[in-house]
């Protein structure tokens, strides 16, 4: 028995009290994972609740308090561990599950996917970058057929010197003998609208690319659930 916010008692139904066929793990075995709610899947990862809250209550709270899986996946690991009924071991289990899902989303049918347009860049980067709590600059290096050579994080957080960023971009591109590149960064605020600094940086890397004959395919800015292509907007590309 627990109390609600208004002080009224609320009975907590525990998984062990449910009919066997209604328990999350048994439902998954019988119907498949797609039949379960997000809270039920999280409950399977948690395995146990607390003296005050059953595992389904803990899982439901985690999902609803973060407005869904996207918010839960973006939680800092230390903050997730402090949630009631979680702790370090369960937090790492949840984080590992989200990371496996992210990696699965990034895997394609080929080892070196071809990058030809903003959608191709987004397919490689969006699932991860839109959840980041700090700004990151990513570099995709491409061969003459625009097949991916590497996906490199060039910096995380604030870097004030635009020339230093341009130099780092092309130092890595030249090292890998890339014929073309694409860059992307995220706005942790959630709004992907390019800033004036973003446009100036794009102009600088496009100009540098012309000088050393490395094609700059695009510069994407990721927000929450969407992205903007500076090439499509005509920002920084002559």
Q: What is the rounded Rg?
A: 23 Å
* CATH fold node name of the largest domain: Cytidine Deaminase, domain 2
- What is the CATH level 1 assignment of the largest domain? Alpha Beta
Number of strands: 7
Largest sheet: 5 strands, mixed
Report the helical percentage. 40-55%
Low-pLDDT runs of 5+ residues are 1-11
Strand content: 15-25%
> Into how many domains do the coordinates divide?
2
Categorize the overall geometry.
Answer: elongated
CATH homologous group name of the largest domain:
Cytidine Deaminase, domain 2
Distance between the terminal alpha carbons, to the nearest Å? 67 Å
Secondary-structure element order, N to C: EEHHHHHHHEEHEHEEH
Walk me through what this model shows.
The chain has 238 residues and is of the alpha+beta class. It has two domains: 2-105, no CATH class; 118-233, Cytidine Deaminase, domain 2 (3-Layer(aba) Sandwich), CATH 3.40.140.10. The protein is built from ten helices and seven strands. It has helices spanning 24-31, 38-46, 55-65, 69-73, 77-81, 87-106, 118-129, 162-175, 196-212, 230-233, and strands at 2-3, 9-10, 136-142, 148-156, 180-186, 215-222, 227-229. The strands form two sheets. Strands 4-3-5-6-7 form a five-stranded mixed sheet, sandwiched between helices. A hairpin with a 5-residue loop joins β1 and β2. α2 packs across α3 (55-65) and α8 (162-175) runs parallel beside α9. The termini are far apart. The model is unreliable at 1-11 (pLDDT under 50).
Compact summary:
With 238 residues, the protein is of the alpha+beta class.
